[in-house]
Structure to design on (308 residues):
């Protein structure tokens, strides 16, 4: 990682970085010139982005028609056909407009977000959990980490530590934030994510369309917790990003660990329900983690957690 820029961009020319970023814009979405500049680590470089796209030699593989001005306006000199040609191409991909010259960015624009939560770093922190990034706030069921009601992280903790997957649930499809924070302080569990700034290429919680712009400062997170010698990445995206940030080499196999100087790095399965593994099988991996971290919970890793 170099100055917060993804390592795969290192060694590229400015134009090559622009083309690599534009290739990531999915069908039916648009980005602004300024957003592309921000994605490649050149905030304020919107004009230079426009210049690079004006001579794009790779269209339509590099879909420069998916890049618009800050207000959603189409390019006056697009591809020799002007805004009418750009409008035609975007409309064919399902992009919506407020008028024939302006894309509706509220519906079709990509989104760049700073992390909405402060790191949770108790002074007695012993285990640091790192996900990828919180889902859009519309999906939150509390103001804390792993807030999505259909993410099973807190059900796994309830099952492992209390024998009850519903231990941290409340009525109204809410998680009990106060109970969770009390539990985390008691156990010395710390939380953040591997990214502090991201671009959502689609307006959902999928890691597939999450582009990391600024990685988290892992060393800074750990500096305030002298007793923390275990880092846990929860899923494939966070594991790959942590390996990149730390120059850590291969990602450990699921449910196993690698030793990095004074840190033991565990890779756990994703707690998203989209990940094809039962709740009990995921809990077995977490129970093994706690047991190995000298915090043997009430429900230890055993075959009793696995479905028959």
């Amino acid at each position: 990682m170099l100055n917060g820029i993804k390592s795969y961009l290192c060694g590229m020319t400015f134009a090559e970085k622009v083309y690599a970023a534009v290739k990531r814009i999915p069908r039916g979405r648009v980005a602004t010139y300024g957003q592309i500049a921000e994605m490649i680590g050149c905030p304020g470089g919107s004009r230079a982005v426009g210049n690079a796209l004006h001579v794009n030699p790779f269209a339509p593989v590099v879909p420069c028609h998916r890049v618009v001005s800050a207000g959603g306006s189409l390019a006056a000199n697009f591809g020799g056909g002007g805004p009418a040609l750009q409008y035609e191409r975007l409309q064919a991909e399902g992009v919506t407009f407020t008028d024939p010259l302006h894309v509706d960015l509220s519906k079709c624009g990509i989104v760049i977000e700073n992390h909405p939560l402060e790191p949770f770093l108790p002074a007695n922190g012993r285990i640091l959990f790192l996900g990828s990034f919180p889902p859009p706030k519309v999906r939150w069921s509390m103001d804390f980490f792993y807030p999505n009601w259909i993410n099973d992280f807190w059900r796994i903790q309830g099952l492992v530590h209390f024998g009850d997957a519903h231990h941290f649930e409340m009525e109204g499809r809410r998680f009990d934030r106060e109970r969770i924070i009390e539990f985390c302080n008691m156990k010395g569990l710390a939380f953040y994510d591997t990214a502090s700034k991201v671009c959502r290429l689609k307006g959902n919680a999928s890691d597939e369309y999450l582009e990391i712009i600024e990685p988290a400062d892992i060393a800074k997170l750990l500096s305030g917790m002298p007793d923390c010698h275990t880092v846990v990445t929860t899923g494939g995206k966070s594991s790959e990003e942590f390996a990149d940030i730390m120059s850590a080499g291969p990602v450990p196999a699921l449910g196993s660990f690698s030793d990095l100087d004074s840190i033991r790095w565990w890779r756990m399965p994703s707690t998203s329900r989209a990940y094809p593994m039962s709740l009990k099988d995921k809990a077995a991996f977490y129970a093994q983690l706690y047991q190995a971290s000298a915090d043997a919970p009430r429900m230890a890793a055993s075959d009793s957690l696995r479905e028959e």
Notes: DSSP finds ten helices and 14 strands in the chain. The longest helix spans residues 279-292. Confidence is low (pLDDT under 50) at residues 1-5, 295-308. Residues 113-305 form a domain with the Uracil-DNA Glycosylase, subunit E fold (CATH 3.40.470.10).
